[in-house]
Amino acid sequence: MHEISLATALISLVHEQAMAARARRVTRLVLEIGTLSHVDTHALRFAVDAAALGGLAEGATLEIQEPEGTAYCLDCETSVAIAARGAPCPRCGGVKLLVQGGDEMRLKEMEVV
Amino acid sequence: MCGTCGCGQGEKRVEDLHPHQTHDHAGHGHSHEHGHDHAHWHEHSHTHPDGTSHAHSHSHEHEYSHAHAHAQASSHRHTRGDDAAAGETRLLSVERDILARNDAIAAENRRALQAASTLALNLVSSPGSGKTALLVETLKRIGDKYPLAVIEGDQETTADADRIRATGVPAIQINTGKGCHLDADLVRTAMARLRTPANGILFIENVGNLVCPAGFDLGEAHKVVIVSVTEGEDKPLKYSGMFAASALMVVTKTDLLPHLDIDIDRLIENARRINPTIGVLKLSAKSGEGMDRWIHWLETARALRLATD
């Protein structure tokens, strides 16, 4: 999707945090990009590398955690793991599921010097 | 490229504005460095869909400081100062949404709209779904009943805003240039230029794209996803993010149904598979079939907006 917009928003957040912490350089970024978030992590890596050029986070290692999707099945009234939106409930085969998690796009932590 | 927000200079523009005036550097907040460490804890409760709720608390330490902003157009860094903690690697716990800045501006837009009792709808669809035709037909029907205004998003041209203005309703065009979606900052700028229709409806016609606009809150009350009958039954499954984020699906161009093989019931079933609570309307802006129910939905949503703070 909009990996370039996300990457520039991320780098601006990283700069803000790094400056507040009086860091000279950012060496590692840990992101949480849920599997239901429609982000192509390969494209995101490429975009983050490009967006970081010339700034405090240039060359930082990018670690991306991809939490699985979770949903609440209205048919069997259970929280279940799902691989994609629209996938049936793995327990009862029901198709009325409310997504509860796995769509996050977060900067979790960063390593700075 | 603007170093703070990454937007392309000279690409995005709101009608009548100079290219790079469209967003506000004063709000970017270049931070000062004055760090102080502190620990704090949160307590919050969750309500599960089955009605049970529980509260729990957790604490964590922040090793970094609050940033505070000062309005300045230039970008500069204080970080390379001699007083920076030298040489040692530190791990900062951040835990912030990547789009936090967009979401904060969207919240501001939402507050302004609520204060004016304006119902704002974010209309999203693929290119060519008939969004503008539906909007023009809608404005013809209720343009003299309620205060209305339109924000038009497109990569290029003011053609759509021109079509809207021909109905007599105020409209402003945002050209996103290479951007594939509207963001809250562009909408804030447009809202400042266009009088907010107090007690009425603000339609925000997003860039034709079923992917990216799903992730960007603009401050609207609802997203309305528009799908034409020529697009096939599988759209909700292929572009699930948008259907998950929308409160209503409007199926357009139903006058073409006799010429097509589409199974509308399957389209609706697929949309509900992604979003069990999505509302559905079928209409043709051309023949007028179903338009009454759409107008009724709009009037009801507006009444709900007026009935609550």
Sum this structure up briefly:
The complex is a heterodimer of chains A (113) and B (309). Chain A is an alpha+beta fold and 113 residues long. Chain A has helices at residues 3-20, 41-52, and strands spanning 26-33, 61-65, 69-73, 78-82, 97-101, 105-112.
List keywords for this structure.
heterodimer; A: 113 residues; alpha+beta; 3-stranded mixed beta sheet; 2 helices; B: 309 residues; alpha/beta; two-stranded antiparallel sheet; 8 helices; 27% helix; 24% strand; globular; disordered N terminus
Could you walk me through the main structural features you see in this protein, from its secondary elements to its overall organization?
The complex is a heterodimer of chains A (113) and B (309). Chain A is of the alpha+beta class and 113 residues long. Chain A is built from two helices and six strands, in the order αβαβββββ. In chain A, the strands form two sheets. A three-stranded mixed β-sheet of chain A has the order 2-1-6, covered by helices on one side. In chain A, a hairpin with a 4-residue loop joins β3 and β4 (78-82). In chain A, α1 packs across α2. Chain A is elongated, with a radius of gyration of 17 Å. The two termini of chain A are 32 Å apart. The model of chain A has no long low-confidence stretch (mean pLDDT 94). Chain B has 309 residues and is α/β, with parallel strands linked by helices. Chain B has eight helices and 13 strands. Chain B has helices spanning 100-115, 131-142, 159-165, 184-193, 235-238, 240-245, 264-274, 291-307; strands at residues 13-14, 30-31, 38-47, 53-62, 69-70, 90-97, 119-125, 148-154, 171-175, 201-205, 222-228, 248-252, 279-282. In chain B, β3 and β4 (53-62) form a beta hairpin. Chains A and B meet through α1, β5 and β6 of A and β2, β6, α1, α6 and α7 of B. β6 of chain A pairs antiparallel with β6 (90-97) of chain B.
